[in-house]
Amino acid sequence: MFLILFLLNPLPFFYQKSRKWLLKKLLRICCAPFYHVNFADFWLADQLCSLELVFFNIEFFFCFYTNESNIISSSSSHKFFCSGWSQVVLQSIFLLLPSWFRFWQCVRRYRDTKQRFPHLVNAGKYASTLLVAVTNALRRAKNFDYHQHKLENPFLYLWILMSLFSSTYKMIWDLKMDWGFFDKNAGENRFLREQIVYPRKIYYYISIVLNVILRYVWIINVFIHFNSLFGEFSDIIGFSFALIEIFRRFIWNYFRLENEHLTNCGQFRAVRDISIRPTPKLIKNSRTTQQTEEDEQLTTNGIPLTIINDSQHSSRLTRRKTNAEEFIEEINPILTINKNENYSFDDQIDSMA
């Protein structure tokens, strides 16, 4: 609640411009089909996909505090939204919101570019996430009927199959499309891509292994269902999964951004060659400290001027020569000498003739 009030604060302090930018981007994400998708829109929406537990707990947040405050805890609406089927449905709706936004962003990009690949295929990835949320909701709702025999719940196995399919889909997309790895033209960067930024390849290989493992960490949830002894720790385990997903997204961000800079894989810019390596500053000729203390540099109409004191202690303004003018002054005598030499050589030939 504090974060919501902080974002909506209209007063001109606490990073007002940044808060306005964030709210604007969140609005564009929520209205994904109606706005052109730029890099910041898709990037922020992908971060939201790793915060699904936060969305899942929105319903629990309001139910918990309304119950503690005794404002509407005894009303029929509170009992309806905070228990049973309706609770499962609300939690599932909040859970699938980030993937829903990304799905429509992909559809919008297909509409703008007319490219089925990768945009419709990417939309299919988020559609698989929606199916996982739906089957999980059916599994949880049916648990009320199979309370004593949860393993007999048919939606449990459907949820496992959909989760396996979705995790494999996402894992392949992460490595091949988002990170650009397993490129056939990788050359000496085996299993990676032709161009890499980070100096040691081991960083990439470790990240590949971690991404594969963390994409399937949800399988621990399956063992919890088969072993009721861990049921009381389900909330702690769920919270741990959320932290693991944030860590996975943290790693994902580095290599996704690197791939975007090197290959323009998302085609979010018209120019491909934008270096992300630090470049040394251009070294410019400067006056000595003594000259800087004696002279005062001015600028008039974009032309640098220097105050020079003459023998009568009066000041006059003279234009400082540009680098091009200094170069011309240096090269002119050389050209003049060469011209004179050529002229003398021609005179000698004429005299010999």
UniProtKB/TrEMBL annotation:
Transmembrane segments: 84-104, 155-173, 202-224
UniProt record, GO biological process: cellular response to phosphate starvation; phosphate ion transport
Main location: membrane
Domain EXS: 82-291
Record InterPro entries: EXS_C
Domain of life where this protein originates: Eukaryota
Cell location: Membrane
Signal peptide stretch: none
Pfam families: EXS
Membrane topology, record value: Multi-pass membrane protein
Gene Ontology CC terms, in alphabetical order: Golgi apparatus; plasma membrane
UniProt entry keywords in alphabetical sequence: Membrane, Transmembrane, Transmembrane helix
Gene Ontology MF term list: inositol hexakisphosphate binding
Name of protein: EXS domain-containing protein
Organism of derivation: Adineta ricciae
